[in-house]
Amino acid sequence: xxxxLFLVAVIAASMSAGFVIxxxxxxxxxxxxxxxxxxxSGKAIAxxxxxxxxxxxxxxxxxxxxxxTDKSPPDFSWTxxxxxxxxxxxxxxxxxxxRIVDFVPTSEKVEKMDINTMMKVVGADAxxxxxxxxxxxxxxxxxVDYAIIMSGEIDMLLDDSEVHLKAGDVVVQQxxxxxxxxxxxxxxxxxxxxxxxxxx
Length: 200
What we know:
Elements: H1 2-15, H2 17-24, E1 30-38, E2 44-53, E3 63-69, E4 96-103, H3 108-111, H4 117-122, E5 143-151, E6 153-157, E7 162-166, E8 170-174, E9 179-181, E10 188-196
Antiparallel strand pairs: 1-2, 3-4, 4-10, 5-8, 5-10, 6-7, 6-9
C-alpha cells in the first residue's frame, strides 16, 4: 500500500512540475481567452472572456486547448465551449485545434525517457511515413501545424538537424518528425494551430 501511495505521489509531482516551475518564474500557467459570436440581434459580442488554465497531461509541459473545430469549413451551430471538447493530441478528422503550450526547461529525467514516449501518445494517428524517433519527445502527426513562438526560446529537433527558435519566429510543420526541447532556463510559450491533413 505504501509503495502504491508513493507511486501516486511521484506521478502527481511529475505532472505538476511544469506548473511549479512556472510559478517559481512568476509566469502562471494560464491564458486569458476571448471568444466572440454574433448574438440573436446580429451584434458581435464577447461570448467568453476568461482564464484558461494550462495543465500537464501528456508531457511535463502545461498545455490547454483554446478552441476546437470538428469539420471544415466550420459552422457556428455549436453550443457551449468548444475548448472543452475531448480531443487527442491531434485534431478531429477534418477539424482543427488551437492549443497553447508552456515548454518547461528540459531535464535529465526527460532526456532518459523511453525513446518512443511521444510516438506512443500519438499512437495510430501518426503518419506511416517517417523515420524512428531520436528523442523521447519526438513525434509526427497527420496534420499541418502552425506554431508561433510567443515568448522564450526553444529548439525544434528534426531527424538529423535542429532549428533554434525565439519569440516572434513561426514554424509550419507538415506531418514531419519533430521534438520541442527547451534547453534554456525560462519557460517558452508556443501557440499551435493544428489542422487535420491527408496522409503524407
